[in-house]
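Changelog entry: the MBOAT, membrane-bound O-acyltransferase family-domain-containing protein record was regenerated in this release. Current contents:
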Amino acid sequence: MRLIDLTVHIPASSSGRSRALTQQPPLARWKTIEFRIYAVFIFIIVLIMGWIPITLSSSTHPNYMTFRPRLSRGWMFGRAVDNSDAQYRTFRNNFPKLVMAAGGFLVAQFIRKRLHRTATAARDNMYLLRFNFGAAVVMFLALHGTSVLKIAPILTINYLISKQFGASKLGPICSWIFNVAVLFLNDWHSGYKFGNVAASLAFLDDYEGIYPRWHVSFNITMLRLVSFSMDYYWACNAPSASENVTDLNDKQRQTLAHPEAMYSYLNYISYVLYPPLYLAGPILTFNDYIWQHRKPLDIPRRAVLSYAFRFLFAMLTMEFILHFMYVVAMKDTKAWAGDTPAEMGMIGFWNLIIVWLKLMNLWRFFRLWALAAGIDAPENMIRCMANNYSALGFWRSWHRSYNMWLLRYIYIPAGGQHNVVVNMFLVFTFVALWHDLTFTLLFWGWLVSLFVVPELAARFMLPESKYGHRPWYRHACAVGAVFNILMMMAANLVGFVLGLDGMKFFVSQLFFTAEGLRFLVGASVCLFAAAHLMFEYREDEKRNGIMRRC
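Regenerated structure tokens:
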């Protein structure tokens, strides 16, 4: 096993793009004195970074009783567990039920396949669209109960808008307006209540299914509604692909249109409510979903088992962190009185690691379910959160399927690279509001847009093609990486961890105390060394024909 095999494989990373390298990567530097020093230094620092939150989580720490009420009974080594993150708690507590649901779906699909193969020699999986439709309806009713009376009209109206306008530009325009309006109304009315419509209908609010808060996950559904509308609009304005096409790559499956008959209501509902991907994604475009039924992919069983092992390892890693580092509870209760800037920094850092791990576990479970069912959805998390030095690269590897969706349906239609800064501002404003209609996340979106500008400017003034061979270039990039990482951490701490008030306190401790300034200098030195290791890791990938662009 190679070091680079620790990063999950994606088909695009070893495609023809990897052969488009302008120059041969330099010889490996891992065994040089410089990189051995970096490696030993970072190894020691990582141990310290782990030890700090474990110490802060000790029952003897002065702040322990502040966050103790948010801890739950654990199962590892007699320790309590920090199960206070609401999103991950829902997934963690319902994990056995999700496994049973996935198992039931896969068994039913297996039986359906056997029956079909007995009756006819299958060349495609189009017959599974009806099965997926039926399974989706059953899941839909079980999850949302009477709320299907609210959701079904939304789905149907979006479909009718698309079909009504066809090749007209009014189709995607009206669909976008409708879906954005629904997002705001869902949030404003908290999913709507029958009792608010008529007192006689209030009893329906008692039968809202296993997951009554449908409006929370509707943000994901909205992406599929827009995908169908835009893909159908483009299909009406371009010839459909030949039935004889073979060996489509992931890019072609997104862009090649289908015959208009494929954009039917049954296929639409089958796609929008596809059980393995419905609740959390990853996001699959409508075109891709249908292509994977028209031209089924060969997904080796070994690949599925390997991915399952990755998922289980990540789950256990998360369990270990939650049992030994109670940083989420500290963050929620603001239990950092008397903590040093280094300790506060580690509370923020490990909260970001937990955000990364919880989302990765969610997405990998549902992607694993889809893979076992024969559908290859995009991998959402390619790299570890701590293995990123570029703001642009970070967003390519974090929630990757969402990034691909943004490129296809917002960034490129809005002009793409012809006006990068304005389009980035537009994209991240949408991203922030899509996540949550709050000023904190809107401010986060604007911060991210602002922090991308220095990297774009540096790439323009110091292009690798011109200066990459200079001895100083790698070190200059590492200095830039330090600023990039600090800015990305600041933006994400505001958006997802500390909020504006917590960040103000942290900044005051960091920049206006001697201890804070010492920590900032020390952290910058650590990040400088870490950036060099990240650079070399990517050079190692290039030497092995892998180009992940993140």
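Confidence is low (pLDDT under 50) at residues 15-20.
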